[in-house]
Design goal:
By secondary structure, the chain is an all-beta fold. The protein has one domain. Helix content is 0%, strand content 66%. The protein is built from no helices and four strands. It has a four-stranded antiparallel beta sheet with strand order 1-2-3-4, with no helix packed on it. β2 and β3 form a beta hairpin. The mean pLDDT is 79.
């Protein structure tokens, strides 16, 4: 039987600062010699913390048949409510 467990923690600190200035034919309307007038300004700041635990369990069963071929059955589960998998294979020697 094979099994594994993984803990992952992420800290995401994101800062957004966007702006748009409309300039057509070399001038800005309305013009100001002392200010820059922006048409759209977007500012945002987010701090996100994410933690997760991931696990799996897998079982492999091998059986040698009378003709010396091998029958392998593999089954497993990932995550608490994760997808389960089953595979069956037959190999001749």
């Amino acid at each position: 039987m094979l099994w594994g467990l993984r803990f992952q923690n992420e800290n995401i600190n994101d800062k957004l600062s966007e702006w748009r200035m409309v300039d057509s034919a070399g001038f800005v309307n309305p013009y100001s010699p002392t200010e820059i007038n922006l048409s759209d300004v977007y500012k945002a700041k987010i701090n996100l913390n994410s933690s997760r635990i991931m696990e799996y369990v897998e079982y492999v069963y091998n059986k040698t048949l009378s003709d010396s071929s091998t029958l392998t059955l593999t089954g497993g589960v990932r995550g608490i409510i994760g997808p389960s998998t089953i595979s069956l294979s037959h190999h001749r020697v």
